[in-house]
Amino acid sequence: MALDLSWPYLIVGCIFASLARASNISDVYPPLWKESPGQFSDYKMENGKYIINFWHYPERLGTYKILLNKTAKYFAKFSPENEQNILWGLPVHHGWQYQTGRLADPTESTDCGRKSGDHLCISVDSWWADLNYYLSAMPFLAAVDSGIMGIPSDKVTFLPPPKDQMNFCYNVSSCHSSFPEAMKKWNEFYQHVKSHSSTFDDLLEYLWAAHVSSLEIARKNFHNRLKYYSKQEADFERSWALFVDYLAPPLFPTTLIRTYEFQKELPKRMLMNEDRAPFIRDFSGFQNTVLFALSVLHKVHKYTGTLSFVLWKTLMKSTVARKLFLEILEFILHSFN
């Protein structure tokens, strides 16, 4: 197999082609966005602290909503209505996880997350939910710690899951002690968010550094969750996590519309053992192509012993290369108009 660095271009290109189909802004928000908490006073308070149940979808989603509201003023210089806030990628992707049933109990030993059961429950056994915890709790608590949220750092705490409590952190101090490097990177991101001199690319660089740091820890801690899934779903999970690593070097802009359109081409349901991309009948042509390309990228990465990723990172250090990457995406976009 020859080393081929075109796969990241192909995957993102296929997804970006869907941007030609403009979306109504009201359709792009995560499910239950309007109904979720939007301020700290919407949460229960005990002993002077806000108590947030991170294993209840609206409550976890609400922390993103507060985060987007509190950081809006810092992104106003880039666009109106907070659309260019690069933190949108986190809640929008979490909404896709909820909508496609990926936050439910994969062991099927409980009705947590099931449409016929406790559909707002987030299962601690869900690989997707656990990785998202690290990409929701840490960004939120680091924002509290940085002063952006306007409350003291010791005034908010999260409820623990029913098991594996040691794999998670629940307040600013415990996250710093358990995951110091990731929290440091999230704090660095927020310091640059507050800086008037930061450019859009500056913020993307620090955001992706923090994102990758959190995801790297989460993948190691929750690798054992993959055994609960069909082979096809587990393979997709591995491929998706790897692909996110490839999105970081070119500084993919995780704004509202772009993230929404991006993930429209991801699987719309859990994958079953009999699913074989690119021949899944109830998936669109784009969804099949993206799923197949993700699988090939994972195989190339595995075959080259990470050499392809090292070369990709080196290539994307060039401003010219990143610009070319975006121009290719724009060309594909206009080709599908």
TrEMBL record:
Keywords: Signal. The keyword Cytoplasm does not apply. Pfam families: Leg1. Residues 1-22 form the signal peptide. It comes from Puma concolor (Mountain lion). GO terms for cellular component: extracellular space. InterPro entries: Leg1 (IPR008499). This is Protein LEG1 homolog. PANTHER family: LEG1, PROTEIN LEG1 HOMOLOG.
